[in-house]
Amino acid sequence: MTIPVCRNDAHQRSKATGRIKTMPSQTGEKIDFRKSNNFMRSWSAQTGEICREDIALSTNRAPPPMRGRLAAAPAAQKSVEVPARRTAKQDPYVNTVRGAIHAAEAVSNAVGGLQHWLNSPPAPPPPPKEKPKPVQTVPPFDIQDIPGAMRKIGAPVGADLMDKWFAGALNYPPTPADERNGINQNGVPYPPSMFDTTSVKIDWVMKFARTQKGRDYLMSQFETTAARRELSKSLRPFRNRQDIWPWLECQGDIVRFHKDFQFQQAPVEGTLSQKLTQFITQSLSNEGLPDDLTCALGSFNLYAAVSYAWFDHKKKLAIVTHVSIYVKDNFTFTDEAGNASQYLGHWSRSHVAIVPAHQTAAMANIGWLEYPVAQGDVHAKDAVLYPVKNSDFRAWQRKHNQGGDFVIYTDRITVKLATPIEVAL
After folding, report:
1. Which residues in 157-176 are b (16+ Cβ under 10 Å) and which e?
2. Spatial separation of the C-alpha atoms in residues 185 and 170, rounded to whole Å
3. Is 168:195 a contact under the CB 8 Å cutoff?
4. How many CB atoms lie within 10 A of CB 338?
5. pLDDT of residue 81
6. Which letter does DSSP use for residue 174 in this model?
């Protein structure tokens, strides 16, 4: 199904009354937006036109081969020889007579044809052929072209993760609560193939300043009442031991490690939606393009889990001396029920753009502004930018029965605490 992003009329739903209001057509109207300058890694102010109504984001391209599934080799085709048609045996005398008759008829026809050709007037020249006029078409833009555009704006990690999503088996959480609990559309936990522990490295994540700020905040919260309560709950089952190495206890299974020994978390903000909101409130100041961390993880959490602890049996204490810090994040396109689908920008094969009017509508929970934006001739390469929302990815999943939301875990960094945390058991 092609997503209908241009209409003769549009609608907005009043948040207060729930009634739908009809908006006038805006096709051809000038509109301001910010477009990626890929060389400078910045935004540039642009003006374009709201696009004509027969241009739409495509979801028609066949999905990529599914990860983990081998294509069946086609069966070898056996050549079948068609037997020659058998004819009845003929008398040699009859065949000779027939051959003579055919030869005489051929000579007669040739002489008559020659005489007719000599007496006939020359044929008129054929009329000149009209060259068919080339049909102009708008270069299609498919939702699967977005990873290529992400690479051009400098987000290769995010592009790789989106490619992985397209190639995944169908998997999605119906609600945000299901997303938090890792429950998919079949009402069961995500299968093991939907946990990615290799694509994103913690050292790469830590190169970004906002991640370092999030790590500092995380470590400042280690001795809060809530953190101590989680530490006590995690370590109490092992209080009769001398010490514990949780990573070895979990046999290197980070999903189990996270479930049993994680005790604190800190958010690192940076979703594309949040950045767009920031653009509106700051009147589109000098904010840079969304970086690769935004495209890969968006808004994510840093987590802390026990890496090593020993037990003081006299004082009935657990003393935590080392912690592990890592990222867990959901690569998903889930929307909150009752809200407009999250706007992810306007995209072409080479650029991303932000249309403030669209984002303003999204902030007000109005989903009416769903038009492409064109600059110049719509038949030119990259002249049209198409709006993309979470719901477009969900529509692609329904159409192709493929596309898998998955959970990302980075590897861990281990931090030795300057002051160990003492927890009563």
Report:
1. bbbbbbbbbbbbbbbbbeee
2. 9
3. no
4. 9
5. 43
6. S
- Angstrom CA distances, 217 to 202, 212, 375, stand at 17, 9, 44
**CA proximity to 27, closest of 374, 357, 349, 351:** 374
Low-confidence ranges of the chain (pLDDT < 50): 1-25, 70-88, 97, 107, 278-286, 368
**Are the beta carbons of 306 and 258 closer than 8 angstroms?**
no
CB 277 within 8 A of CB 363: yes
From 412, 424, 405, select the one nearest 250 (Cα to Cα).
412
| Boundaries of every domain in the chain | 10-14+30-62+137-424
In a 13 Å sphere around the CA of 404, the CA atoms on its Cβ side amount to 23
Give me the pLDDT at residue 116, please.
Answer: 59
Compute the residue count for the chain.
425
**Six token digits for residue 190:** 């995500």
Considering only CA atoms, which of 212, 209, 282, 218 is closest in space to residue 43? 282
CA 215/CA 341 separation, integer angstroms: 31
What is the rounded CA–CA span in Å between residue 270 and residue 167?
A: 25
| DSSP bridge pairs for 48 | 31
Which stretch of DSSP H or E encloses residue 352? strand 352-354
Residue whose pair of structure tokens reads 């051929």 in the numeric block = 106
pLDDT in tens, 110-126: 555 556 555 667 777 87
Furthest-apart CA atoms within the chain: distance in Å: 129
Give the position of tokens 């009147």.
283
Token pair belonging to 93: 């005398």
Selection from 148, 57, 65 nearest residue 395 by Cα: 57
Contacts of 348 (CB under 8 A, 6+ apart): 141, 149, 382, 383, 384, 385, 386
Determine the residue type at 146: I
Burial of 183 (0-12, 13-18, 19+ CB in 10 A): middle
SS (H, E, C) 239-306: CCCCEECHHHHCCCCHHHHHHHHEEEEEEECCCHHHHHHHHHHCCCCCCCCCCHHHHHHCCEEEEEEE
DSSP 226: H
pTM of the model: 0.75
Q: DSSP code of 330?
A: E
Gap between the Cα atoms of 392 and 2, Å rounded:
9
Show the tokens assigned to 393. Answer: 């990815």
Nearest residue to 243 via CA among 329, 175, 187, 312: 312
DSSP state of 122: P
